[in-house]
Specification:
The chain is an all-alpha fold and 107 residues long. The protein contains three helices and no strands. The chain is rod-shaped, with a radius of gyration of 34 Å. 0% of the residues are buried.
């Protein structure tokens, strides 16, 4: 499309005035301005929502667990699992449930 010069813009403006009338053009311009303002605000909200929804990827490496020494004598009674072991077990259960339901993995 060729560049529009001032002469072409004046001709387009005159055609618009003849088609719509001098009273309707300011109202149409105001309506167009309002709709553009609303559109701009909505696109900004969508961008903010996308940024808030995109989680930051964190890589957590599991630390190697030292093997427990073998006891030669009679074993001690089984102790209750620690908080870390309980949390790990819960995470594994949640991962299995997500895998079955097809939900994406969460960090």
């Amino acid at each position: 499309m060729p560049n529009l010069g001032p002469t072409e813009l004046i001709i387009i403006g005159l055609i618009l005035v003849l088609l719509f009338g001098a009273k309707k053009l300011p109202e149409a311009a105001r309506g167009l301005g309002r709709s553009l303002r609303i559109f701009k605000a909505e696109t900004a909200k969508l961008r903010e929502d996308d940024e808030a929804a995109a989680p930051t990827a964190t890589v957590v490496q599991a630390q190697p667990v030292a093997p427990a020494p073998q006891q030669l004598a009679t074993p001690a009674p089984a102790a209750a699992p620690s908080a870390e072991e309980q949390a790990r077990a819960l995470e594994e259960q949640a991962a299995r449930l997500r895998a079955r339901s097809g939900a994406p993995e969460q960090p």
